[in-house]
Specification:
Order of helices and strands: HEHHEEHHEHEHEEEHEEEHEEEHE
Number of strands: 15
CATH architecture of the largest domain: 3-Layer(aba) Sandwich
Number of domains: 2
Distance between the termini: 53 Å
Strand content: 15-25%
Shape: globular
Length: 257
């Protein structure tokens, strides 16, 4: 085992290389690859984060050079804006009078919120502060769930969200994602956000994933649900054909914009 203090800089450089190579790494994986204890790995991660070389998340670390890192909300909203608008328009057409609809915190879902501002015949439940602001003037009845504020995504997340979510039934849940693959399903960067997403999907009759094709093939840190949790995917025509086939095999109805 490489535990000697004199080797700490060398070990930390190896650790950084592993995180940079994989994009994301868990503490137990780093322990196995470096042959050190969890306490040593955590100290090294803390040192590397202080140096600005990685970003720690619950249970592991993200490379600051990785495409799997989550951009700030305003930056994310500018990415693939044309595709997101088209996806949101398809989603809005699925909302029926009398529906109780959940809006997740993604930038594509925010586009949907803007399209639903005139719908006074539905009830919207959301954990998104941005969506709440969009809907605060008039239109649907809005229920904002409580919880811990996650500033990066401008959402309420974590165990406290259970207090409201466990008490309501959702006709449709429109969800966003950071990553989507046939093997890992949907993933995000934050475990607390993943926790809330899983709660929502359990409470919804229909789960509709809104995701532009740039998310396909990417894996982030925390699993938010399996493919079996998703009823429908609305995406653009850039979706990889192999992934499309794999998703269809799982029974997911796919709408391409």
């Amino acid at each position: 085992m490489i535990q000697h203090k004199d080797l700490a800089p060398e070990r930390q450089e190896r650790l950084r290389d592993i995180v940079r190579e994989t994009g994301i790494a868990r503490v137990d994986e780093l322990c196995e690859r470096l042959g050190v204890s969890p306490a040593t790995v955590r100290r090294d991660l803390e040192a590397l984060e202080t140096q600005g070389r990685i970003r720690r998340v619950h249970g592991g670390a993200l490379s600051i050079e990785s495409r799997l890192d989550e951009p700030l909300f305003d930056d994310k909203a500018e990415m693939a804006s044309k595709q997101k608008r088209a996806i949101a328009e398809e989603a809005a057409a699925l909302v029926q009078p009398g529906d109780t609809v959940y809006l997740d915190g993604g930038s594509t879902v925010l586009e949907l919120a803007r399209l639903l501002r005139t719908r006074s015949d539905i009830t919207l439940v959301t954990n998104s502060l941005r969506a709440t602001i969009e809907l605060s003037g008039s239109g649907p009845e809005v229920i904002l769930i409580g919880g811990e504020l996650r500033r990066r995504s401008q959402t309420m997340v974590g165990s406290l969200t259970r207090l409201i979510l466990s008490q309501i039934h959702l006709d449709k849940a429109f969800m966003g994602t950071i990553g989507l693959t046939a093997k890992e399903g949907t993933t995000t960067t934050d475990p607390n956000e993943a926790f809330t997403k899983e709660l929502v999907m359990k409470q919804a009759t229909e789960v509709i994933l809104l995701s532009d094709s740039s998310k396909a093939g990417k894996v982030s840190f925390a699993t938010t649900g399996t493919l079996e949790d998703i009823d429908r995917l609305i995406t653009d025509d850039g979706l990889d054909p192999k992934l499309k086939t794999a998703l269809s095999t799982k029974g997911i109805d796919i709408i391409l914009t």
